[in-house]
Write a structure and sequence with these properties.
The protein is mainly beta and about 800 residues long. The protein contains 4 helices and 50 strands. The strands form 10 sheets. It has a 22-stranded antiparallel barrel. A 5-stranded mixed sheet has the order 11-17-18-15-16. A hairpin with an 8-residue loop joins strand 21 and strand 22. Keywords: Cell outer membrane, Ion transport, Iron, Iron transport, Membrane, Receptor, Signal, TonB box, Transmembrane, Transmembrane beta strand, Transport. One of its GO terms (cellular component) is cell outer membrane.
Length: about 800
């Protein structure tokens, strides 16, 4: 009955907008590029003596709507360029698309052509991989960027929901665990695999799905990226580009409803706070609440993100961004769904209904996540730029949880009870300078910087106790919370402080127009100490001292203007999470080394981008249990693993069709035999084959102009769920999605359907064979967006 009223509401709105299709106002759109045909992002585009204005996105594109027909003076300005003006006439109902070229030397704009506006999927440049605004074509690393339009078309509200749109990436479960190039990136071990505007400091804890309320685009930098960002997952890092204040007044509201009582609302306000438009603001507020297809689950998020930008002058700017995220959930962790073990040692992944859960209705989780980032950018001269960033993050968690203990017997399972409170922080200071110079025939783009990161926790109060055994099919949760007087079986009560000091220098050398060489060298030094806060702590303290050099070498050759071939050598190291002397420490650092070759091409008048890469990653010094008669807790560092693979991706915009497609092959295995496993064993949660596709076609003319239809699929081959049992293999799966949307004037109405065939599939495991991450069954979302002004 509720769906009937929802569709009636949508029908009324659609008819209202069709009736208003013949607007008396005009719209102007365009794209700004520099002399090298690279997009100029963040440029201010305004009409003189009016309140109309906007700025270009990461693709250099802009749109201004609701313009009264007449003659105007268009003004375009950006840091590093002299403001340019030109006359422009707006005609009733006409959507003009201006392709403009900005010359850095002459600092002037020239109108080129008029064509049709597009919401592009294709992104041609990224500044994160090299800290330079380098075209992806000339970047000696596999980088993929999903822009804001992809996030909107997918109705993706968390990183987990967009992970499968990247080639070769997947979410392992409903928490913050992801697979990239065969490696699992998970916050407790890879604290910096999530970056914000290229700066360390993950806003969200590992028990959460990172939210996208204030995210403009998401970048995946594949492989170890230690030369610029220090430690991280060997498989890659994910960078969030956040929404920044704009120089024109703009406001929007988004509403969504969906399956399992999902509801979401957000507002986004931005514009100038002063008449001269030097002080800009942005305020984003979001709230969502939902249940689940599993029993007794309820989750709600509140997100607030205010930010300010002060344009001191054309060369200098200050930006302050504050984020606050509060989550309250019945089940903080997603402990997955049950898997039946047959007597012969095989597994039945379809035996138990998907609504069952190991957790109790009394479990809960509360997190408070806050961050503040202050950025200073200054153009010292035409060739020299300076950036200083200070980022502070604090996370507090209070949760209780039930986990499986042992194996399922007679459709019943023993459980353990966890009670945890923790208070974590990260203080990151980054300063770097970029300098452009020329020595003879060689051009240089030099980046030199220093990092200081102080991070850890001031509280880590954890207790584990045994709990009740329950019938899986008919659970009775009576007495599932152990009495407080019962001593804990395991306990932590400590604090830990780690200091990281790093410095790096990078030179991107251009030899003519066809050859570029990237040389980077970084030095990192870690020092840390874990201190017990009471006699309850079971770790007895720990200390960390580690340092090392991290090199990077990349070569790019462009035989023709739109095609490149590249090769790179990347390296990173991660300090051990344990160096306890009682366990045999200190241990050598975990090190990853990647060799990669590939090719990229921008085809069909730069409307289609293709990328092919082949790589090998060697990962050494993984800790594993190595007990002796004298020391049952002894650990040892082993040779590690080897990940090999290839990736192919396509992104483009072809006559109303936006598409993203890709194929990834990966083989991640152990290279030696130890207590960790046998040589050749497959690594957990690392499928050999992954295929992704998402395409959207939008009508650009006629009475149905603005109507869009989209479809997509994800294929993941079988994967080992636990390294210690190579017979525990999750079956392959294919998931199909689809969407319909209608864009008219200031409204966007959209319906997304996910997992159209209601496929029952497991995405990955955590640490056992009793439960695992289960993919969402068929579900629907309806969204309405309205541009207030």
């Amino acid at each position: 009955m509720k769906l009937r009223y929802i569709f009636l509401f949508l029908f009324v709105i659609l008819n209202k907008q069709l009736a208003n299709a013949q607007s008396e106002q005009g719209t102007v759109s365009g794209r700004i590029v520099n002399i090298d045909q690279l997009p100029v992002s963040g440029a201010s585009v305004t009409f003189r003596n009016t309140t109309l204005g906007t700025s270009t996105n990461e693709d250099g594109e802009f749109t201004l709507s609701g313009i009264t027909p007449g003659s105007y003076v268009l003004t375009v300005s950006n840091i590093g360029y002299t403001a340019h003006t030109q006359s422009l006439r707006i005609t009733k109902g006409k959507n003009a698309y201006l392709s403009l070229q900005l010359s850095e030397s002459k600092q002037e704009l020239k109108e080129v052509v008029i064509t049709t506006s597009k919401n592009r999927y294709q992104v041609l440049a990224s500044g994160t991989s090299t800290r330079l605004n380098t075209p992806l074509l000339s970047t000696p690393q596999s980088v993929q960027v999903l822009g804001s339009q992809v996030l909107k078309d997918r109705q993706a509200f968390t990183l987990n929901e967009i992970a499968g749109t990247f080639t070769g990436m997947k979410a392992n479960n409903g928490n913050g665990s992801f697979q990239m190039r065969g490696f699992t990136a998970y916050s407790p071990n890879d604290a910096s695999f999530l970056l914000y505007n290229g700066i360390r400091g993950n806003l969200f804890l590992w028990s959460q799905q990172p939210l996208l309320y204030n995210v403009e685009s998401v970048e995946l930098l594949r492989g170890p990226s230690g030369a610029l960002f220090s430690e991280g997952s060997p498989g890659g890092v994910v960078n969030f580009i956040t929404k920044q204040p704009l120089p024109e007044k703009r406001a929007s509201i988004d509403l969504s409803l969906g399956s399992w009582a999902f509801r979401r609302a957000s507002v986004d306000f931005t514009g100038p706070l002063t008449q001269n438009k030097k002080l800009l603001y942005r305020a984003i507020v979001g709230y969502d609440r939902s249940k689940s297809f599993r029993d007794d689950q309820d989750k709600q998020n509140l997100f607030i993100a205010p930010s300010l930008t002060y344009l001191v002058n054309g060369n200098t700017s200050l930006n302050l961004e504050v984020n606050y995220a509060y989550q309250k959930a019945v089940h903080q962790y997603d402990n997955g769904s049950y898997i039946y073990s047959r007597p012969d040692g095989t597994f039945d992944f379809n035996y138990y209904p998907n609504h069952l859960t190991i957790q109790s209705p009394t479990d809960y989780g509360k997190t408070h996540n806050a961050s503040a980032t202050l950025s200073f950018n200054h153009q010292v001269s035409q060739n020299l730029k300076l950036a200083v960033v200070q980022r502070a993050v604090r996370n507090t968690l209070d949760y209780t949880d039930h986990i499986p203990v042992g194996r399922i017997r007679n459709d019943s399972i023993s459980r353990g009870y966890q009670d945890w409170e923790t208070d974590r922080f990260s203080l990151q200071t980054t300063a770097y300078a970029t300098y452009t110079a020329k020595t003879g025939l060689l051009g240089h783009q030099i980046v030199a910087g220093i990092d200081y990161n102080r991070y850890g926790w001031t509280k880590n109060d954890y207790q584990y106790k045994g709990s009740t055994r329950i019938s899986i099919l008919n659970p009775d949760y009576t007495g599932s919370i152990p009495d407080a007087s019962i001593p804990a079986d395991e306990s932590d009560d400590n604090k830990r402080i780690t200091n990281l000091i790093g410095g790096y220098i990078q030179d991107q050398v251009s030899v003519g127009e066809k050859l570029k060489v990237l040389l980077s060298l970084r030095y990192d030094s870690y020092s840390g100490k874990e201190t017990p806060l009471s006699d309850r702590d079971g770790k007895q303290g720990d200390e960390l001292e580690a340092s090392g050099w991290i090199p990077r070498v990349g070569v790019v050759y462009l035989p023709v203007k739109n095609v490149s071939v590249y090769g790179s050598y990347l390296k990173s190291f991660n300090p051990q999470t344990s160096n306890n002397i009682l366990s045999g420490g200190p241990f050598p650092t975990r090190q990853s080394t990647q060799y990669e070759i590939g090719s990229k091409a921008d085809l069909i008048d730069n409307r289609l981008s293709a990328s092919l890469s082949l790589y090998q990653i060697n990962y050494a010094n993984i800790l594993t249990a190595a007990p002796t008669e004298e020391n049952s807790h002894r650990q040892a560092a082993i040779d590690g693993t080897r990940s090999r693979g290839t990736e192919f991706s396509l992104t483009g915009n072809l006559k109303g069709l936006n598409l993203i497609a890709g194929y990834a092959f990966n083989e991640h295995v152990l290279v030696s035999t130890s207590s960790y496993g046998k040589k050749g064993d497959r690594f957990a949660n690392a499928p050999k084959h992954q295929v992704n596709f998402w395409g959207k076609y939008t009508l650009t003319s006629g009475i149905l102009k603005g109507l869009g239809a989209a479809a997509g699929m994800r294929y993941v081959s079988n994967q080992v769920g636990l390294l210690s049992n190579q017979n525990f293999i999750f079956p392959e799966y294919t998931v199909f999605d689809a969407a319909l949307s209608y864009h008219r004037n200031r409204y966007v109405i959209q319906v997304n359907a996910y997992n159209l065939t209601n496929k029952h599939y497991f995405t990955g495991s955590r640490s056992g064979m009793t439960t695992a991450g289960l993919g969402d069954p068929f579900n629907v979302r309806i969204g309405i967006s309205y541009q207030i002004w």
